[in-house]
Design brief:
single chain, 240 residues, alpha/beta, Rossmann fold, 9 helices, 38% helix, binds adenosine-5'-triphosphate, binds magnesium ion
């Protein structure tokens, strides 16, 4: 078993309750999860199990109702909004099933977005050349050298997801969280995205947390967690 020191991301007792009008719905019932440095961890489970909800909490996009998320040793949800955003920018990249690209921005601009958000206007402006070169380099490395100026609507699904992957990696985060990154793509297109994802995971030694419905994909991960109805049914400690 890996030592606690190698944990890069962990959840303890995460509860998430959604309130709509009078009704309250508890979706996550106290989830524990550990991501170890450099590993590929898959999270599988039926639709509605709470996988995306958990990723959003782990990715610091959605506050848990109870429980904690520790990112690189910091209790992330106890921080203020700005500090948490800064922590997220330095450590986490996130890839969504439906890309979440900005329609008004071209591919290069979408890729640079994390720097635009993380840096002051002045710093971003002064480093713009460097950022442009880096964004272009990433896109070229992902086979999109001829699509740099394309807006999302001018790109295929697979191309959009490659742009989204480049964006997630732009600030060189050590952790990548991907929520069904190929769930919206046909098999062949999905393969292209996956090969890039795993290539980058290896090359950068990323800690990867991947939600997928695809057993073949999960088989390429070192560990597979199963989630059902808001609970992880095979805790890692039991699974080993
Ligand atoms: N913002 C929200 N408000 C209310 N309920 C929500 C919200 N987001 C998710 N839910 C509910 O939480 C449950 C889990 O949703 P979630 O998207 O996490 O499932 P999932 O495991 O990712 O499913 P899928 O495999 O279909 O993506 C669902 O029943 C959903 O309706
Ligand atoms: Mg989901």
């Amino acid at each position: 078993m890996s030592s606690a020191a190698a944990l890069v991301l962990s959840a303890r007792g995460v509860v998430k309750t959604f309130v709509s009008g009078e009704s309250k719905l508890e979706i996550l019932h106290g989830v524990d999860l550990d991501l170890v440095a450099g590993e590929r961890l898959a999270l599988m489970g039926p639709s509605g199990a709470g996988k995306s909800t958990l990723l959003h909490v782990l990715g610091l996009l959605e506050r848990p109702t109870a429980g904690s998320v520790t990112l690189e040793g910091t209790d992330a949800w106890s921080l203020g909004t700005e500090q948490r955003a800064s922590l997220r920018n330095r450590h986490l990249g996130f890839v969504f099933q439906f890309y979440h690209l900005i329609a008004e921005l071209d591919a290069v601009e979408n890729v640079m977005l994390p720097a635009m958000i993380a840096q002051s206007r002045g710093e971003f402006a002064s480093r713009k050349r460097e950022h442009l070169a880096k964004a272009r380099g990433l896109l070229e490395g992902f086979g999109l050298g001829a699509r740099l100026k394309h807006r999302p609507t001018q790109l295929s699904g697979g191309e959009r997801q490659r742009v989204a992957l480049a964006r997630a990696l732009f600030l060189d985060p050590p952790i990548l969280i991907a929520d069904e990154p190929t769930g919206n793509l046909d098999r062949d297109t999905g393969e292209v995205v996956l090969e890039l994802l795993f290539r980058e995971q290896q090359r950068r030694q990323l800690s990867l947390l991947l939600v997928t419905h695809d057993e073949r994909l999960a088989a390429r991960c070192e560990h597979v967690l199963r989630m059902d109805a808001g609970r992880i049914s095979n805790g890692r400690r039991d699974a080993r």
